[in-house]
Design a protein that fits this description.
Strand content: 15-25%
Distance between the termini: 24 Å
Bound molecules: zinc ion
CATH topology: TIM Barrel
Number of strands: 14
Number of helices: 11
CATH class: Alpha Beta
Largest sheet: 8 strands, parallel
Order of helices and strands: EEEHEHEHEHEHEHEHHEHHHEEEE
CATH superfamily: Metal-dependent hydrolases
Number of domains: 1
Structural class: alpha/beta
């Protein structure tokens, strides 16, 4: 990673790099290991945003109906590719949505495809379009055995769905009741604990073996649950897993800035229309694709760890999935820019996170 700037000579050398005044950052082009792009008209708006900065993205399969077969995933991939702007080389990598009835042979087809690189476990009802998900992990043991054997990665939405578990405790309870036993039962299964939000999840990954990793979103690194209620209910900060208290945000920052290669970038950028967010029962999901990279840079910079951003954003995820890093580079420039108030989207508006606010880092070449 190239870091251009000046170092204040008086500063003690032992300090991490908060004293650097860095003006540009050149990174191997990052990948987004957790992305929602929806389908049809939505693709026109959101695919170009991700394609502008990321080389590859792991596309989540929670359409309605969900992407449960390799044939569906390959067709969906073509629809996404058709919306990549000319001149950009964005590669969608695909995942399957596991259900109680997924046949193990489907895993063979996924593996053979070369582009379906993961299958996603949504506990039934845990989040957007999760009603088709897995009602009990025991039911999919034969599928997990096949994944373990073939080396297909299991992506997990790690929240308990027991109705008596407090929403702020769902991830911790999932670690205790579901994920720990699963990791013990399938010691060779590669697992990505998606969009972790708690100190307990970060610690679980830290003490697990090389087969367990986690993605961390920009919004969980940057905001705590106060953001949901600042001056009134803020629906655009509502996502699942829900934002947590500050001590958990600090634990996530520590995890991603530690240099541990089993933490990597996954935005969980999730577009919804303004109408379905700003309503009596709004959808979960934050739309961050256009600003995520800038947010991550802000978060790492605040920790004096900009030198760790490239591994987190561009190297660790690819290595975990057994893929080479992207060959080209991008440059982020320290230049404040204003996030649009909204984008036109499916006959309505799409309101990004931090709409109308400023982001400190800008992709060079962006206008
Ligand atoms: Zn997601």
């Amino acid at each position: 990673m190239l870091v251009h700037g000046t170092i204040h000579p008086q500063q003690p050398e032992l300090a991490r790099s908060p004293t650097r005044e860095v003006s540009t950052l050149t990174l191997v082009r990052p990948d987004d290991w957790h992305l929602h792009v929806r389908d049809d008209d939505a693709l026109d708006v959101v695919v170009p945003h991700s394609a502008a900065c990321f080389g590859r993205a792991l596309i989540m399969p929670n359409l309605r109906p969900p992407i449960t077969t390799t044939v569906q995933a390959l067709a969906y991939r073509e629809r996404i590719l058709a919306k990549v702007p000319p001149g950009l080389a964005f590669e969608p990598l695909m995942s399957l949505y596991l259900t109680d009835n997924t046949p193990p042979d489907e895993i063979d087809l996924a593996k053979a495809s070369g582009v379906v690189i993961a299958a996603k476990l949504y506990p039934a009802g845990a989040t957007t379009h999760a009603e088709f998900g897995v009602s009990a992990v025991d039911l999919i043991h034969p599928v997990l055995e096949r994944m373990e054997k073939l080396g297909l990665v299991l992506c997990v939405h790690g929240e308990s769905i027991a109705p008596d578990v407090d929403i702020f405790d769902r991830e911790r309870v999932f670690v205790e009741k579901t994920l720990s036993p699963l990791v013990r039962h399938f010691p060779g299964l590669k697992i990505v604990f998606e969009h972790i939000t708690t100190a307990e999840a970060a610690q679980f990954v830290r003490v697990s073996g090389a087969n367990v990793a986690a993605t961390v979103t920009a919004h969980h690194l940057f905001y705590n649950r106060n953001a949901l209620f600042a001056g009134g209910v803020r629906p655009h900060f509502y996502c699942l897993p829900v934002l947590k208290r500050e001590s958990h945000r600090q634990a996530l920052l520590q995890a991603v800035c530690s240099g541990n290669p089993r933490f990597f970038l996954g935005t969980d950028s999730a577009p919804h229309t303004a109408r379905t967010k700003e309503t009596a029962c709004g959808c979960a999901g934050c739309y961050t694709a256009p600003l995520a990279l800038g947010l991550y840079a802000e978060a790492f910079e605040a920790e004096g760890a900009l030198d760790r951003l490239e591994a987190f954003a561009s190297l660790n995820g690819a290595a975990f999935y057994g893929l080479p890093p992207n060959e080209d580079k991008i440059t982020l420039r320290r230049e404040s820019w204003k996030v649009p108030a909204s984008y036109d989207y499916c006959g309505d508006k799409l309101i990004p996170l931090r709409a109308g606010g400023a982001v400190a880092w800008k992709l060079a070449g962006d206008v």
